[in-house]
Design brief:
single chain, 164 residues, alpha+beta, five-stranded antiparallel β-sheet, 3 helices, 5 strands, elongated
């Protein structure tokens, strides 16, 4: 079993050099809660700072590529695909962000997907904070991962940690 500690209990980056590269995919989500009026303004392009979704999409993609700079024991990976999608619900004032990351690597891309979703959410906050000081960011979670020895994981609805 891999862990991030050596035999003296000191933090280390796990040595994955002996593993064979496989196609790895991860999908993570984050939820942004805001006023209905703010979400309507985003959708209608009325936020004074500009296109909120375009900026958040670029922030999320950039974040996936910069994950090893932010998470100390994360491996630098050659990201082959990073995408951000948004689902809006004006009635509840929510934006659900879904980040997908893919790479042919020796270790998974879960952290890249979670950092990607997180930074896209923070970019939405930054773009809209002048219009809505009450914006909050909710659950950041791994929805799906595949590739590697541990196989496929799919988050089950209303359960915290189930495997497919």
């Amino acid at each position: 079993m891999f862990n991030h500690f050596d035999d003296r209990g000191q933090a280390i980056m796990v040595d994955v050099s002996g593993k064979q590269p496989t196609l790895r995919t991860a999908v993570a989500a984050a939820t942004v809660f805001l006023k209905k009026e703010t979400l309507s303004a985003i959708i209608e392009g009325r936020i004074s700072k500009g296109d909120v979704f375009a900026v958040a999409r670029l922030a999320g993609i950039t974040a996936a590529k910069k994950t090893p700079e932010l998470i100390p024991l994360s491996h630098p990976l050659a990201i082959h695909h990073a995408a951000i999608e948004f689902e809006t619900d004006v009635e509840t004032g929510t934006i659900t962000i879904e980040a997908t990351v893919r790479a042919l690597e020796r270790t998974g891309v879960e952290m890249e997907a979670m950092v990607s979703a997180s930074l896209a959410a923070l970019a939405i906050y930054d773009m809209c904070k002048g219009a809505d000081k009450g914006i909050s960011i909710g659950e950041i979670t791994l929805l799906y991962k595949e590739g590697g020895k541990s196989g496929t994981y799919r988050k089950q609805q209303n359960k915290s940690s189930d495997s497919a």
